[in-house]
Give the backbone structure.
Amino acid sequence: MNGRHNMGGGGMGSGGYCICPKCNTRIPHRPGIRCQEEVCPKCGAKMLREGSYHHQIFLKNKKDNDE
């Protein structure tokens, strides 16, 4: 069994983007570095992996707040 899954790793692969939940800045995901460990270069917020579980929750909450 993969140790990453035992630790709760998302396993989304090496491609994709990290996105800032505050200013929507996107940066390429760097292999081996979780997006949540990245800091937005524009506003300093913690970033999310685009398409991840946490990103989906953020989008749902944003949509609910906009209505």
Summary: Residues 14-66 form one domain. The mean pLDDT is 84. The chain has one domain: 14-66. The radius of gyration is 13 Å.
